[in-house]
Design goal:
The complex is a heterodimer of chains A (228) and B (441).
Chain A lengths: L6 H8 L8 H26 L6 H8 L3 H7 L3 H22 L1 H4 L3 H16 L3 H11 L11 H23 L7 H21 L6 H19 L6
Helix pairs in contact in A: 2-3, 5-7, 5-9, 7-11, 9-10, 10-11
Chain B lengths: L3 H16 L9 H14 L3 H19 L1 H12 L6 H8 L10 H12 L3 H4 L2 E2 L5 E2 L3 E7 L5 E7 L3 H15 L1 H5 L5 H14 L2 H14 L6 E2 L12 E5 L6 H6 L4 H22 L1 E3 L7 E3 L5 E3 L5 E3 L4 H10 L6 H12 L8 H17 L10 E2 L3 H16 L7 H18 L2 E2 L1 H17 L1
Parallel strand pairs in B: 5-9
Antiparallel strand pairs in B: 1-3, 2-3, 3-4, 4-6, 7-10, 8-9, 11-12
Chain lengths: 228, 441
Amino acid sequence: MKPKPKRRPAQEADTPRRDSRPPGKRTANKDRTRKAILEAALDLFSRQGFYATTTKQISRKAGIAEGTLFNYFRTKEDLALYFLEREVDALISWFGHDNRLQGAPLPEQLFAVIHRLFERIEPYQEFIGAISLRGLHPGSKLSPFSIERGQINLRYLRFLREILEASEARSEIPRVGEIGAYAIALFHVAMVAHWLNDESPGKEKTLAVLDRCLKLGTTMLKKGGWDW
Amino acid sequence: MKSEGGTGALVRGLRLGKLGLGLTGSYLGYQVQNLFLGEEKRAERGKSMRRAASRRIRGELGELKGPMMKFGQILSMQTHLLPRETIEELATLQTRAPAMHPSLARARFKSSCGKYPEELFAEFDAEPFAAASLGQVHRAITRTGEKVAVKIQYPAIRAAIENDFKLLRSATFPVRLTGHVPVEILNEVQRGFLEETDYLHEAKSMDYFRERLACLPYVTVPKVHWDLTTDRVLTMSFVSGEPAGEFLLRNPSSAVRDQIGERLFELFEYQIQCLQAIHADPHPGNYLLRMDGTFGLIDFGCVKRCSMDLGELTRCAVDRSWQYDSAQAERLVFLVWCGKVSAKDPRTRRMLAYLKDFIDLVFPPSPKAAAEVDFGNPALLHSVTGKLSQAVGNKLTNPELAFVSRAELGLYNLLHQLGARVRTREILDRCVDRARGLQAG
């Protein structure tokens, strides 16, 4: 995660001059603490639910003072943003390392990406549901239109565009320009909503819908005329 | 089966049913209606056009999976009803439906078994080697080194079946009103399909048949690996052999084809006489034939356990004494309808007339009793299937018999494909003796 410029001075003021270690190490330590907080929070969310988890519990589990927690994440929204960012990065890195997928047809690649995300966020459904609801509030940092969220969105859109460009290079689809990536990202959001509400065993309905929509969508992309 | 009225009703039904379709169901259903409309109009335009249309139908039915695909498979067995090009295209549904891509298959496996296939098997082939209406089959090797076939079910197939039957019910509304398709038959078929979605049920059937068919040494039934089986994933020992189409490309001698034909016939009669349960999914992909005259029997999703005494029904029908003995005729009518229709009903007389013709064809009368029936003769097949269709057309069906007739028609089509000559009467007598032996024992 790129450190949030707003927060940085405050944090540095909090961590006093006593700290004589080189800045690289200090950043690494901060990163480690940030990760530890998120892990502690996610563990509690998955076991006792998002709403039932207090900041006190999170800080105790992460082994830090409650006050220190607020230095890292001022609100639960900040925590959620960090989580989203981590998931997007993990997804991009995972895809890049899967050699078999690199050569797979477009619908399968997109299926694998979205399914991989579902698999990762499976234990935190209530948390994801809460994030999605908060995101509907226009003033929230979690809103898809917020500046904070915008950076994560852009990273994901770039990633999708790369997948589409590779597919174009394989002559699998004609040039689809930016709109392809936007359409898939939007579809992805809709699929998360479907997934959250899917009560079928193993969420198999989501798998079916995802697979069929992606095949249908690819067929539509193949028709061309998307490069506006 | 595919009369003008039927098709019209089907099209109307599809249009109605479209409104109620969820995305998990046959969301392409409306495309099938166009295909069927289009196919009729294109009928005159020569073979190439017909082939193209058939290919599209196959593509769509394969994509829809579930009962719609099954419907395609059943159509492909009606060799006398459809143009040859259409049948050839539809026949490929039997083993080559469009597959789930490896990512989806793995996801399905994990959601059912809790782990990815590569975590549970020593080797797992990501590409399926066969696809059926409800699932696809992958080769794998277990940790103990055994070659197995792993069947993985398509996602949300149960919901798709429920949707397709809603569709089928509205489609067949007019013919249900006239009584040509009794509602019990639809219920029976739907029950059968839903049962097929539970692989644990199939695994139990496989165990049952494996044990009971052990006395027919030429049939191989796969062994279930229960530790790697769930309601959506079925792991069984690998069975070698090829479906009839590919088998015939090897030019087996007529002796081998006759031998296999006779054994297939014996397998069927043995089930009727001795098991009171039959493997009722007879499409050629389920019989894996081998050049040494043996074969594998797979796919036990559709097994029919009969409450009516099919063995006695066959013995009584083939005995022919009902043709002059009214008590015997009454008994036969009782066996067919389980006492729901009286022997005096005019329908029964028509049924008995069809039955006589049918029996004469498949089990020729006395002087020729030892003789072979040549199933390769297209005229014979045409008459046999024609008689069965007439029985359906005259509302003479007992819902219990729906699956049995399907199995029987499938068997005759397979025997026809093999061009087999079969000593039907001799085989039946042998099975009847075995049944007596079993009862006595």
